[in-house]
Automatic annotation (TrEMBL):
SUPFAM superfamilies listed in its UniProt record: FKBP-like (SSF54534), Triger factor/SurA peptide-binding domain-like (SSF109998)
InterPro entries: PPIase_dom_sf, PPIase_PpiC, PPIase_PpiC_CS, PrsA_foldase, Trigger_fact/SurA_dom_sf
Protein name as it appears in the record: Parvulin-like PPIase
PANTHER family: PEPTIDYL-PROLYL CIS-TRANS ISOMERASE HP_0175-RELATED (PTHR47245:SF2), PEPTIDYLPROLYL ISOMERASE (PTHR47245)
Organism: Loktanella salsilacus
PROSITE patterns in the cross-refs: PPIC_PPIASE_1 (PS01096), PPIC_PPIASE_2 (PS50198)
Length: 303
């Protein structure tokens, strides 16, 4: 939807909704205490193909209004259905009047409509594909595979603490204090310049790739309760204490459900695209036929 179309729709709805809001302010009564909760009324039905208006012979259908209503922001839900209905109808009628007045249709309008139709049609296919592929059974099966893979090739995680200082000499001095018997956390609180210093240098659990390479290589070669020699990274000099290690636990199904659903959706969509591509004839222009930057030259659309 273009900016001007949005502005028109907003203007058409604003007057009706403002009037309704003012009427509600003067007629709404205080709710009765302990009033029984009314049962939800059944959803009204009608034929989406029913004509609700004509503009110089062009029919406006109930289905068009339904789609326009579905695209309204959630804030409009506070208004009565009859007010929304009239506002949406006014919006579409005004748009049709302006549309009918356009005698010289720019080529860009046709290209935009082609893009919109292509997107809507593709979206319908995607909806059907994902609805069929993403079932409770498929989600559970994908989760079971995840659990099995984690058991077959467990990923190690580390729980470590560190202190960060500017120089190697400062790091070695801190290490000497710890070796002499001082508590690592207390030394870290005193000398560390890193954000974890005030909490004793605690980093919690982390896995491969979550720390800079030098830090990860250090903990990989340590045993629980080991304290490292000074280690230099881009942030400065560290002394690292490895608290414990573990195999990365598998998250509960509900924690990874969204991730699994996304993976199932992506897989079925990509599979369908490859299937369609194999059966289709797709011809592309030569790679150097156009300057890629031409896509930003929107002035060409006005010619």
């Amino acid at each position: 939807m273009t900016r001007m179309t949005t502005l028109l729709g907003t203007a058409a709805l604003a007057l009706a909704l403002t009037t309704a809001a003012q009427a509600q302010d003067t007629t709404t009564e205080a709710p009765v205490a302990d009033a029984p909760v009314a049962e939800a009324a059944p959803a009204p039905t009608a034929d989406p193909a029913a004509v609700v208006a004509t503009v110089d012979g062009t029919e406006i259908t109930l289905g068009q209004m339904m789609i326009a209503r579905a695209q309204l922001p959630q804030q409009y839900d506070q208004f009565p259905a009859d007010v929304i209905y009239q506002g949406v109808l006014d919006q579409i009628v005004q748009q049709q009047l302006l549309s009918n007045s356009l005698t010289d249709v720019p080529a860009r309008v046709g290209w935009a409509m082609a893009n919109e139709e292509r997107s809507l049609r593709a979206g319908e296919v995607i909806t059907d594909l994902t609805k069929a592929a993403v079932t409770d059974e498929a989600i559970q099966a994908a989760y079971d595979e995840m659990v099995a893979a984690a058991a077959e090739e467990p990923v190690k995680e580390w729980n470590a603490s560190h202190l960060l200082v500017e120089t190697e000499e400062e790091a070695q001095a801190a290490k000497d204090r710890i070796t002499a018997g001082e508590d690592f956390a207390e030394v870290a609180k005193e000398v560390s310049t890193g954000p974890s210093g005030p909490t004793g240098g605690e980093l919690g659990w982390f896995g491969p790739g979550q720390m800079v390479a030098e830090f990860e290589q250090t903990v990989e070669g340590m045993e629980a309760d080991d304290v490292s020699d000074p280690v230099q990274t881009q942030f400065g000099w560290h002394i690292v204490k490895l608290n414990e290690t573990r195999d990365k636990p598998v998250a509960a199904l509900e924690e990874v459900r969204a991730e699994i659903v996304g993976g199932l959706q992506e897989a079925v969509i990509l599979s369908k695209i490859e299937e369609l591509k194999a059966a289709a004839t797709v011809t592309l222009a030569e790679p150097d036929a156009f300057d890629p930057a031409v896509l930003t030259n929107l002035d060409l659309l006005e010619k």
